[in-house]
Structures are given as C-alpha cells and as structure tokens.
C-alpha cells in the first residue's frame, strides 16, 4: 500500500505545466502586484534570490535595482525558457538562472530579499511553506542572521459559506470551482461574511498544519453546499505609508458532502484541517458544516409579539 506522500506526489505531479506559467504572465493583477512589491522591496544594489523562478519574470523585475539575482528553477524546460527570456530583456544579464531544487539550494553569499511564488489558494498543492521554512534553516546555519526579507511577507486566509450552482445543462456534479475575484458569477450566493482562519507570517516560524473551527452568522437564507476559500497574499508592507501591496488569488469553492439549510440569523459552525502543500481532496474530505446548538435569538416582528 502506498503511503500518503506517495499518493500526494502522484496526484500533484512533478512540475506545473508550462502553459500555466504563460497564463500567469497574462494575469494582470498578479503581474502588477508583484512588480510593485518587488520594486518597493528590492533596494539599489541588493542581492536577491528567487525560489521557483518559472519564466523568470519576477527575477527580472528584481534586476531593475538589484546588483545580482539568483533565479532557481527545477524544471529543465522552464530553465531553458527563463534563460531565453533573460537574453531578450534589458538587465537580464544580472539574473543567473540556476537549475537546482529550491529545497536544497543556497546562494554563495548573503542576500537581502527572497522571492518565492509557489502559491495556491489556501497554501494547498504547492510547497510554499515547506520551501521557505527549509530555506530559513539552511540559511541561518550557513550565514547566521538576520534572515532576508521574504516576498510575499505574509498570507491571510479566510473561509465563507456559499450556495453554489452544481447543475450544468441539467447534469448535476458537485465540483471544485475557481472564480475570479470582484466578478459577479450567476448561481453563486454568499450566505455569510468571510471568516479569517489563518495568518502566515513568513518572517516567523510557520507550521505546515492548518486547522480551524469557528462560526459564521448567516446573512440570508439558503443552502450551504460549498465553502469558498480566500487567499490574500501580502506581498510587501509599505510601513512609511501604512499600507500593503496585495495580490488576491482566485476564489476556490469546495463542495460540502451534506448540504445544510440555513435561515438568516442562524449560526453556522465550520471546521476543517489540512497540511500546507497538501491536496485539495484532503481538505475537502475534512470539511464539517453544522448549525450551532445555541442559536442566535431571533426577534419576532412587532405584529407577532404578545401583549
């Protein structure tokens, strides 16, 4: 019998397909957010390391101010593409594209900024947390402190009870759904406000186990048949202006095994547990949704109260 890590490895695959990287280049929100954050975080003359460089675009953003950028990529196809891209763009000569595993690589000198964009909604599938934590340990053993600045600096995650449409031209299928943010999607109803369930600060030790139990108050009546997971990446904290540079992942909604009918004012209890970098089905299987035993008192309309 295969163990969990073997099953997960088979499910996740070795590399992200090349066309996914191309889609990321065309994601304007992602590109603008990272460009702004990198231009803020990378000071003139800085030394920068990118773990998981892909097409090399984030390393190239850093090269505008940095004196040296180490761009580490494990997929040989992407290594070739990144090197080709560096040759096509100004300042590309300051980026050294290195074929290596981000879990093992250390730069030959201390660095100022680490860029690591192995991000999936809920910190699932990709090994963002594990890569950064293992890097911290290797870096401190080799160079001592302080640690470099990490980009993103933190990740804020929330969950939201939803009523979703699972009928497709008469074909019923409760599936995982990804939706663009700030877009109205027919058949998608928000039943309660999002509840924050985790904040990961990459400057601090970060646990790979994410578990949460909490409550939401239904704002309207409906059927909770899915949970929306929201991931806000805090790319850089602009302290002098009291603001952050953020990037919001697409929303991910997972079906609930047993849909729950709710009325406005009901208290919905939610729970789940998963491991950062784990599979989507592992999170889906852990989801628990129920009504709270002690309901929020409901105020009767004036015309139904007894004298």
From TrEMBL:
Q: Gene3D superfamilies per the record?
A: Vaccinia Virus protein VP39
Q: Which GO biological process annotations does it have?
A: methylation
Methyltransferase among keywords: yes
User: Which molecular-function annotations from GO does this UniProt entry contain?
Assistant: histone methyltransferase activity; protein-arginine N-methyltransferase activity
InterPro entries in the record, alphabetically? Arg_MeTrfase, Methyltransf_25, SAM-dependent_MTases_sf
UniProt keyword annotation of Cell inner membrane present: no
Residues in domain Methyltransferase?
48-134
Alphabetically sorted, this entry's keywords are:
Methyltransferase, Transferase
Q: What is this protein called?
A: Methyltransferase domain-containing protein
Its source organism is Massilia cavernae
